[in-house]
Amino acid sequence: MVDLFTGLWYHKIILEWLEHKNMKKKNVILSIILIIAVLFIGYRVYDAAFPVAKSLEPFTDYPDVGDVLTVTISTPDGESTGVYGFASLIMQIQQVEPTRKASVNDTPSAEFYYKVAVATENKAYNYFVYEEKGQVYLEIPYLGIYKGQYNTGSSSLMEIIPDLIAKYPAG
User: Fold this and answer.
1) Residue 153 pLDDT
2) Which of 93, 90, 86, 89 shows the shortest CA–CA distance to 56?
3) Residue 34: which residues within 8 A CB-CB, separation 6 or more?
4) Number of C-beta neighbours around residue 4 at 10 A
5) What's the whole-model pTM score?
6) Which one, of 37, 85, 80, 35, lies nearest residue 65 by Cα?
7) Cα–Cα distance between 18 and 110 in angstroms, integer?
8) Which of 53, 64, 122, 149 sits CB 3.0–4.6 Å from 98 for a disulfide?
9) How far is the C-alpha of 36 from the C-alpha of 32, rounded, in Å?
10) Which residues cross the membrane (predicted)?
11) CB atoms within 10 A of CB 97
């Protein structure tokens, strides 16, 4: 009789332990599913609230170097100059990467910026270049704000523009 009672008691403990273990396993699985769902929904909300600017398209958002007729660079205080040797400038514009920042004004909110006006036979392109927190940005009004991605040895737009004004002034 004692062996039967002990066996039932032991069996009951094992069953409770297995039931508890299964509940724990279910809770862990449900927790993981819940965390994944929250992360997915959070990403979707973030992506909808702060969309990535569209990638720049050749001939639509920047010209081919051979098609450029004039390049004029100006500052907010009204100083303006045309430049020649602009191939490096156009190449840097082609290398920018989209950000999640939106361009909602005609001009950037940065204190100091360069306006780069590029004219071809068929279209005029306007870009604004500025530096913020050590990062160089290119802004195209109402299209997007782009971040410079420069290879080693390349100069940033903020370095190229003053050099162009000094070395290749038009007229």
Assistant:
1) 44
2) 93
3) none
4) 8
5) 0.65
6) 85
7) 64
8) 53
9) 6
10) 28-46
11) 13
How far CA 32 is from CA of 29, 39, 43, 46, 152, in Å, comes to: 5, 11, 17, 21, 42
The radius of gyration of the chain from alpha carbons, rounded to an integer in Å, stands at: 30
Give the position of tokens 């990467």: 97
What is the layout of strands, in order, in the sheet containing 68-74? 80-83, 68-74, 114-120, 124-132, 135-140, 144-147, 97-98
- Residue bearing tokens 């001009």: 107
Identify the pLDDT of residue 94: 79
Which tokens belong to 137?
A: 């940005």
pLDDT score for 151: 45
Residues 46 and 100: their CA atoms lie apart, in Å, by 10
Q: What token pair was written down for 21? A: 């273990």
The CA angle 126-91-55, to the nearest 5 degrees, is 65
Tokens of 84: 């020649």
Q: Tell me the pLDDT of the chain (171 aa) as tens digits.
A: 445 555 566 667 777 767 777 777 777 788 888 889 999 988 888 777 777 777 776 656 778 778 888 888 887 777 777 766 677 777 788 778 888 888 888 888 888 888 888 888 888 889 898 888 878 888 988 888 888 765 434 566 777 777 766 665 554
